[in-house]
Amino acid sequence: MKFIHAGDVHLGNPFSGLDQQLPYELKKQIQNATITAFTTMIDQAINSAVDFILLPGDLYNSTQTSPIIQDVVSTQFERLNTAKIAVYLSFGNHDFAADTQPHLPWPDNVHVFNQDVHTYQLSTQDDKLVAITGFSYQTQRQTKGLAGDFPIRDRQVDYHIGMYHGTVGTEGDAYAPFNVSDMLAKRYDYWALGHIHVRQTLNQVPFIGYSGNMQGLNRKETGEKGYYLVEENNQQLIPHFVPVAPILWDTLCIDEMSSEDELIQYLATFPREKMTLLSVIIQANHLPESFKQRLYSHIILDKLRQEELDRIWVVKLIYNPKDVLSFTDNIDQQYWQEAFNEIDHHFRIDDYLSNQVPTDIREFFLDGVGMDSIKIRMKQIIEERRQNHED
């Protein structure tokens, strides 16, 4: 028995953090990146003759899908139907209630979970009886944890699998909060999780974890992206990562740099096998003043883009010297940290953001990357003020 666990496909997602200078061909690649990753996964599913595919939430980037995306999904599901591969699909916080919206018809091999916890059963090619339990979001926020509603493992099946789109947390959190202990109590053989875009294992045996998304969508989602091919081994279900993202996001930190030509040469030798959207952070403490000014004014960034480096597009060029932010100069580190802790303790940013801003922005700050971004910007502002004698 073998199957695919593919979470957070986000078909139709426009990459964020990119400007209007993108070359036309690269723009087309980006527009089709999630579709390319999805169809590649389908190709490999058919070639590997898997028994079924699990899609635990956010197949779509929103509840409203374009005719092009509808056609892609319908066509690929029909290919799987021809190959006798079943699909088990739940909707998450991005595509909640997508099944209630008009879409092209899906073949009978596609099984969709509704808002109530439900269990499907199937027999695999090697006559294994498998139970698959899951649910779908009906609203963007699912503040009730549903792990407790999942039934105890069915003793009549060979394997019992849970599909769950959510995060570890406490009742009232936004995305179907759960505890690993709640899942372990069900005695399932595998939990296919969705929602987190980074591959993450919460428990080894039985496996409880996220496959991550299949295509990075912004510069915080770096590295290879793909799905898990799960195979049976000694009565355990073991996931193996398979990369399919056609475009990678990456970050390069450079400690020493003295000239523009040196930077160009450095990037020309940067290893890459796929098209890479690259953020470059120069951390050198001592740069010529003219070099820094050309960095701040984006002249060097424009020059790098005009070089047409092979399979590299420089998204950001940031000057972030290691010794810029010395709080002992003007700010006592102890009082800074105490003030920050006071704000962090009394002000729940998630409560505010949840009702005020779009999901992608909210998640950016909640996972900590947003705070890191703010710190980097603080360093840049302090350095600029020092240069202008404003400290």
Automatic annotation (TrEMBL):
<dbReference type="Pfam" id="PF00149">
    <property type="entry name" value="Metallophos"/>
</dbReference>
<dbReference type="InterPro" id="IPR050535">
    <property type="entry name" value="DNA_Repair-Maintenance_Comp"/>
</dbReference>
<keyword id="KW-0378">Hydrolase</keyword>
<dbReference type="GO" id="GO:0016787">
    <property type="term" value="F:hydrolase activity"/>
</dbReference>
<dbReference type="InterPro" id="IPR029052">
    <property type="entry name" value="Metallo-depent_PP-like"/>
</dbReference>
<protein>
    <recommendedName>
        <fullName>Calcineurin-like phosphoesterase domain-containing protein</fullName>
    </recommendedName>
</protein>
<feature type="domain" description="Calcineurin-like phosphoesterase">
    <location>
        <begin position="1"/>
        <end position="198"/>
    </location>
</feature>
<dbReference type="InterPro" id="IPR041796">
    <property type="entry name" value="Mre11_N"/>
</dbReference>
<dbReference type="InterPro" id="IPR004843">
    <property type="entry name" value="Calcineurin-like_PHP"/>
</dbReference>
